[in-house]
């Protein structure tokens, strides 16, 4: 649903004018030096470098240096989320040692991240290949992005075994930029082996700077070898290589631990930003949630706390220690996500626990589902507190999967709650409910929507299934992520814009995928109809989105429910005006329902639901 947002922090620019004494070692916690290797695959690519410092008190002032020189905020460098350094328009020239200086009221400390950026070679360049003796082998050497700087392609026999920022390439073969190939004619057995293509910039003193590289293996076979023999040799070599690699990994890890050497691990790093171009507009900004692969280098001094596939941004204002959450039974699940009842420790004074709902992803989730849950979390942070809006209590982003911790609504969704109040087929009652209670539910939800619209938040998915019923029959608006974990055909249809709640959408939303406060009013009217029918399915006879749009454009609307007072139905119809400007505001809806509430009958409903 809705638009979502991330917290903004005040940037710290320039060098500090004050001097600080060295802090006591216990005041700060820093990780060992981290090396990040990244391939530049497109223009406009960016990367976020973390400031791996924590302390007590928490650091509140951060400055960054590149190879010892202080970085000023500009179009390329920007301090992001208060401490991390975001490098936009990433280039190979950004390779350097980046040092973060973190300070609190007691002192300062440094943490260094080494960035190594290289241009990516084309996929067809320098791939492993086989060639017959006396045949011709062609090796391609070509960057995926052509840099503006003057550079040259060089090719030499051997493997680029050790990554170096500067190398002397004497004795290599220069390739013309226009050809970018090396042809080996009359291939001999001794031509077999590793070949490496390097793109390099020339500096003074015959020194070259590597801006991209890739290696490939040339396998040479005699023409007398049968294809079966070639297959046997290839499989044997592959098996030996795998076994060798496995042994190298095992012994390499032991050697790393003993000699303090580095080894790589790939992770998916998640970042959340707001559209800075619209930062002056007084409304929620759609969050920009991105996932990019990043290699981190670990050693025996620094190891990631978790082997999780993802690395989430940590917001210490909302972070909850995972040990304080004890998961319980499953409350509900959809195609990719689930909500679990849990006991939370430390939210109340003493040793008391409090029941909470924890939303998390299922094992079969995709990157899109991760982005959606992170987006919903950021929206809930910004929405704040209101009696009729579900409250965020915290989140767990470190040392495991993402947990979104919310207050627990003991009666579940309003949709399920309403269905429980339908009479059994034999006429016996399940539970008692009155028209006045139904109008009260609608009035509470209108109050919550008055608050959301006042802070410029567009929900985009108002429906009974997205309202939770808390203790005391208090209504709570929830589910602030439009592409959520439900998979019911009648609720969503997969479009280019994602899963959409078509039966609750206004005509302009169906036709143009346009959403604002007035489209929320339309959806509220459909939800009000759901309430007065005890969970009925709107437009049950219309299966397709195109049919619904045509039906609405012809002036048709949902019929008045059997036990719905006339004044309440007039509120619905006012929500369903074709002209959005003629629809009621949520303030007007709230005032109208208060009048209806005083006049609503108190007797229980006698309603059978098909």
TrEMBL record:
<keyword id="KW-0472">Membrane</keyword>
<dbReference type="InterPro" id="IPR013783">
    <property type="entry name" value="Ig-like_fold"/>
</dbReference>
<keyword id="KW-0808">Transferase</keyword>
<dbReference type="GO" id="GO:0007399">
    <property type="term" value="P:nervous system development"/>
</dbReference>
<keyword id="KW-1133">Transmembrane helix</keyword>
<dbReference type="InterPro" id="IPR017441">
    <property type="entry name" value="Protein_kinase_ATP_BS"/>
</dbReference>
<dbReference type="GO" id="GO:0004714">
    <property type="term" value="F:transmembrane receptor protein tyrosine kinase activity"/>
</dbReference>
<feature type="region of interest" description="Disordered">
    <location>
        <begin position="1"/>
        <end position="23"/>
    </location>
</feature>
<keyword id="KW-0460">Magnesium</keyword>
<keyword id="KW-0418">Kinase</keyword>
<dbReference type="Pfam" id="PF13927">
    <property type="entry name" value="Ig_3"/>
</dbReference>
<dbReference type="GO" id="GO:0046872">
    <property type="term" value="F:metal ion binding"/>
</dbReference>
<keyword id="KW-0812">Transmembrane</keyword>
<dbReference type="InterPro" id="IPR007110">
    <property type="entry name" value="Ig-like_dom"/>
</dbReference>
<dbReference type="InterPro" id="IPR001245">
    <property type="entry name" value="Ser-Thr/Tyr_kinase_cat_dom"/>
</dbReference>
<keyword id="KW-1015">Disulfide bond</keyword>
<keyword id="KW-0675">Receptor</keyword>
<dbReference type="GO" id="GO:0043235">
    <property type="term" value="C:receptor complex"/>
</dbReference>
<feature type="binding site">
    <location>
        <position position="479"/>
    </location>
    <ligand>
        <name>Mg(2+)</name>
    </ligand>
</feature>
<feature type="binding site">
    <location>
        <position position="359"/>
    </location>
    <ligand>
        <name>ATP</name>
    </ligand>
</feature>
<dbReference type="InterPro" id="IPR003599">
    <property type="entry name" value="Ig_sub"/>
</dbReference>
<feature type="binding site">
    <location>
        <position position="302"/>
    </location>
    <ligand>
        <name>Mg(2+)</name>
    </ligand>
</feature>
<dbReference type="InterPro" id="IPR011009">
    <property type="entry name" value="Kinase-like_dom_sf"/>
</dbReference>
<keyword id="KW-0732">Signal</keyword>
<dbReference type="InterPro" id="IPR000719">
    <property type="entry name" value="Prot_kinase_dom"/>
</dbReference>
<keyword id="KW-0325">Glycoprotein</keyword>
<dbReference type="GO" id="GO:0007169">
    <property type="term" value="P:cell surface receptor protein tyrosine kinase signaling pathway"/>
</dbReference>
<feature type="domain" description="Ig-like">
    <location>
        <begin position="25"/>
        <end position="116"/>
    </location>
</feature>
<dbReference type="InterPro" id="IPR020635">
    <property type="entry name" value="Tyr_kinase_cat_dom"/>
</dbReference>
<protein>
    <recommendedName>
        <fullName>receptor protein-tyrosine kinase</fullName>
        <ecNumber>2.7.10.1</ecNumber>
    </recommendedName>
</protein>
<dbReference type="InterPro" id="IPR003598">
    <property type="entry name" value="Ig_sub2"/>
</dbReference>
<dbReference type="GO" id="GO:0005886">
    <property type="term" value="C:plasma membrane"/>
</dbReference>
<feature type="transmembrane region" description="Helical">
    <location>
        <begin position="228"/>
        <end position="251"/>
    </location>
</feature>
<feature type="active site" description="Proton acceptor">
    <location>
        <position position="461"/>
    </location>
</feature>
<dbReference type="GO" id="GO:0030154">
    <property type="term" value="P:cell differentiation"/>
</dbReference>
<feature type="binding site">
    <location>
        <begin position="332"/>
        <end position="339"/>
    </location>
    <ligand>
        <name>ATP</name>
    </ligand>
</feature>
<dbReference type="InterPro" id="IPR050122">
    <property type="entry name" value="RTK"/>
</dbReference>
<feature type="binding site">
    <location>
        <position position="466"/>
    </location>
    <ligand>
        <name>Mg(2+)</name>
    </ligand>
</feature>
<dbReference type="InterPro" id="IPR008266">
    <property type="entry name" value="Tyr_kinase_AS"/>
</dbReference>
<comment type="function">
    <text>Receptor for basic fibroblast growth factor.</text>
</comment>
<keyword id="KW-0547">Nucleotide-binding</keyword>
<keyword id="KW-0829">Tyrosine-protein kinase</keyword>
